[in-house]
Design goal:
Organism: Roseateles oligotrophus
Distance between the termini: 28 Å
Strand content: under 5%
Protein name: DNA-3-methyladenine glycosylase I
InterPro entries: Adenine_glyco, DNA-3mA_glycosylase, DNA_glycosylase
Helix content: 40-55%
Number of helices: 11
């Protein structure tokens, strides 16, 4: 999001990032923007959940995935990595019949594969958070328009080398933005200062 772009002004009169306008009137979408997007995360389960959901979002809108998030959590054992890593053919067929989620065989199989690869990564790195935060990009004075960055390309490349799927550089940039590896809220957005304060108080697991 470029600092020169206009902000979105919802009915409460508090300016938000322009992308919130895509769901004008959706209180859940604004709540996600105000309380989750961009705030730093060091919890492995939450990080893995977001990696999975970003993969499911490919070709769809984030609003669609957010509205199905509770159904995804129920279907995928609350994204507990060890449980998902044990999913087999029976679970895949069950998921393909679940109307509450995105029933895409390739994406379903990918997140199960990624859970297995994640266990390998945690055994090597100590935690998913420690690994992810090694890719924290340099902070910028203002957001820029981008679909991928050097950091997202590096993360995507390394995950693919480790056997992960649906982790392209554009998907990884959305993940980096949402999990607070940088503050990409627009200048003037009511949430930007709160995210910046949270980032200053945050201790990176990679340090």
């Amino acid at each position: 999001m470029s600092s020169t772009q206009p902000l979105f002004l919802p009915p409460d009169g508090q300016p938000r990032c322009l992308w919130c306008a895509a769901a004008a009137g959706d209180a859940g979408y604004l709540h996600y923007h105000d309380t989750e997007w961009g705030f730093p995360v060091a919890d492995d389960r939450r990080l893995f959940e977001k990696l999975c959901l970003e993969g499911f979002q490919s070709g769809l809108s984030w609003r669609t995935i957010l509205n199905k998030r509770e159904a995804f959590r129920s279907a995928f054992a609350n994204f507990e990595i060890e449980q998902m890593a044990r999913f087999g053919a029976a679970e895949i067929e069950r998921l393909l019949q679940d109307a509450g989620i995105v029933r895409h065989r390739g994406k379903i199989e990918a997140v199960i594969n990624n859970a297995q690869r994640c266990l390998e990564l945690v055994a090597e790195q100590g935690s998913l958070a420690r690994y992810i935060w090694q890719f924290e990009p340099q902070a910028l004075a203002a957001p820029v328009i981008a679909t991928e960055t050097e950091a997202s390309r590096a993360l995507s490349k390394d995950l693919k080398k480790r056997g992960w799927k649906f982790v392209g550089p554009t998907t990884m940039y959305a993940f980096i933005q949402s999990m607070g590896l940088l503050n990409d809220h627009s200048l003037g957005c009511v949430t930007r200062a709160r995210v910046e304060a949270a980032r200053r108080a945050f201790k990176s697991p990679a340090s």
